Amino acid sequence: MEKELTRRILKKVRQVEVRTRRMVDDTLAGNYHSVFKGRGMNFDEVREYVPGDEIRTIDWNVTARTGIPHVKKFTEERELTIMLMIDISKSGTFGSSNESKREMMAELGSVLAFSAVRNNDKVGLILFSDFVELFIPPNKGRSHILRVIREILFFQPKGSGTDIGEALDFVNRVAKRKWVTFLLSDFCLPGDFSDNLEQIQPKWQITGRRHDLILVSVTDPREQQLPDVGWITLEDAETGEQITVNTSDSWSRKAYANIARDRRQQFTRAARSCGIDLLELSTDQPYLGPLVGFFSSRKRRISR
Fold this sequence. Notes:
By secondary structure, the protein is α/β, with parallel strands linked by helices. It folds into two domains: about 1-35 and about 80-304, Rossmann fold; about 40-75, no CATH class. About 45% of the residues lie in helices and about 25% in strands. The chain is built from eight helices and ten strands.
């Protein structure tokens, strides 16, 4: 039984590797490289000045010693650290389409991991629920990436709730240098949504100042609008709280949709007010197009 489980896990990891590698090589590699810059510039060499070189790059010591103008040549320091923070609380198991929210987050995390490796960047992983359940320090190499993917796909959480603030505090404690941090979650905040959003905003701001923080919101269409199917029981996967709703009642469906819309608008405004990049995805739509679009818009903004 254990051997069969291991075989199934390895097969799934291999399938994800093949699928995401092809996607990265065909579509994402160039976008990723152009969007995420290195930490700075490294000195490469000194060479003779040629017309058109920047005057400020002249190496005056070498110029004085040789009597011939020389300039310093620099290359971009490309290596980055990509940290994937993935919400594995119970609300992520929901999915009314072909895949659950957690399955989409897992594949997207794999795509980002392979994009990083393609550019010789380090990748780390944080899986969290209402506490940090797993931390894999940043590293390189195929075996490391396959371990990251395996954990994303198959890690069994002990917690059921969501504490994004605790996960962000953890990042700020353990990171010694700046990370490009992707926070993947459905952002189903416990309790009163508005109050919890206000509490988490300062955490976004602190982390955004120290790191390049990117929020990736993954939702399901049934969280935004109910179908007309009569009486149904809705259950909060994280708390177990249940409510029975008559979806044949147009007023109930409209009220549900209005609440969902208001929450999404609050969430988007909060992210923008903190100056945090936000990518919004839904399980009923392919994520590749929005991801490429996000990279393109970010590239345009950075190049201004």
